[in-house]
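Tokens help. Consider this.
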Amino acid sequence: MRFKGHIFIAFFIFVTSMVSAQVKFEAKVSKQKLGVNERLRVDFEMNQDGDNFNPPDFSNFTVVGGPNQSVSNSWINGVRSYKKTYSYFLAPKNRGEFTIAQATIHIDGETYKTLPIKIEVTAAIELPKDPNDPDYVASEGIHLVAEISNTNPYLNEAVVVTYKFYFSSDVNVTNLNDIDTPKYNDFWSQDIPIKQLKVERGMYDGKEFNYVVYRKAVLYPQKTGKLNMEPLTVDASVQVATNRRDFFGSRIMARANKRVSAGNSTITVKPLPEQGKPLDFTGAVGDFSFKVTTTKTQLNASESLQAKVEVQGNGNLKLFKLPKLSLPSSLEVYEPEHSENVNTNLSGMQGSISDSYTIVPQYKGKYPIPSISFSYFDIKTKTYKQLNSNEIVLDVLDGPLNSGAANQNIANRTKQPIVLSNNQFAFIKTSTNFSSTSSSYFFKTPLFWSLLLLPFLAIPFAIVVRNKKASRDADVYGNRIREADRLARKYLSNAKKSLGKKEAFYIALEKALHNYLKAKLHIETSDLSKDKINQLLLDRQVESTVIKDFIGIIENCELARYTPIDQVTMQEDYDKAAKTISLIDKQAR
């Protein structure tokens, strides 16, 4: 009986060890039913470390946080317990039943997948008003407001939209990201860049708040009536002060992600008045000046000059057409070249637009450029104004006469026939002289014998290349190392492309460092403890300062997900990683 008991205990220990050695990779959610105004947490857990983690496509959700990575490694009664988790925080886009698809990861050369999880999103629910809940404090402490300079403008009148982000003193904003930017349908729009967010004090809903001007845009309505302006939605990463205090009496700060929207706005656009509208009006609205100028007024026939039709001022300069020049038919005129010198600021478009005509007179005489008019609607006086250019006379001093009718053309301005010169057409010659080309034989030349023997000479080279390839393909271990080295270069390249995007950059940089170590030290990712890395690099005669820098970069990758990082710091970490890898390559023996 005692012998059977020992056998049972041994069998139990064997089964337990086999079960504990199995790879587990699963997805867990904080809840499977939630309101459209709630957040969902998704954790992807594994009991062994792996490579190339690929999350599912959260197409029906907005990722408001993550991926956050956590690792726990412990020893209990001589048994190692390891767990690595990738966490995402999601906000549903709308109501309905959705599925969190499979995530994949490579562990020990095998691909593992999680099971799909069904999520039900209901209508918005009332959130508890808990002053210790970071989400509640954030929702009460941050607001996004769109201020519109004029909600009842005329058609093509400039409207300025200023987005202000308000936050209370209990909230510390660490990051702002656009989630949904307005399309400004039915408007011509131009964003005004903001170089630096400056914190100011202001009133919101009767209370004093801090605020920053987050975005500005100038709009020109292109339709009349009620026009809807889509809201701007941003995701704010904030730290909020709760009512709980630590051991020293200081208030405990909690981290939260909150999505806020400026809300829909409606602008009622008035049509321009019909009374007094000139016949040549093309839609110009603002305050303008108008002129027609030429580069010269005296020239010879076949010489060219430039005539410029120009409008200057403040208004919808890019949204109307300039009047056309009316010229005598005896002047050769090319299509105008349009140019714009327009700046857009909070006062709207300012600058000038012009059409430049190239004119070439054919005959001697005097040719007038008649006065033309330009009309616009003046916003200040709410009336139409018409501007006229001065008449310009071109004096062609030297050239052929137009059958004696050049001066008469000034009086009656009728079209004159163009007299063609006999030299304007060149006829094709009907006779030519042929010369024979020198003939040479290709047969038995050095080039002939070289091309004939080349295939036979290439056969030994092809055999050598084939044997080398077969030997390389058979080297499984070497191929594995080369693949890891290729991945290191690939991920370091991906990190460079992701500069400015904190999460994507540090994930790619960490993968590059891990794959580089696999290629250099011939170890698996699961063996990548900092102590072992330090010892292995010391054994390879790498300087301790270089090892310290390398381990420091890995620690930066782990900490960067939980701390605010600017682009300058990311660039420094990338340069430091590239320099450190280069030094290890040079020093390792």
Q: What stands out?
A: The chain has four domains: 20-122, 134-269, 285-415, 476-587.
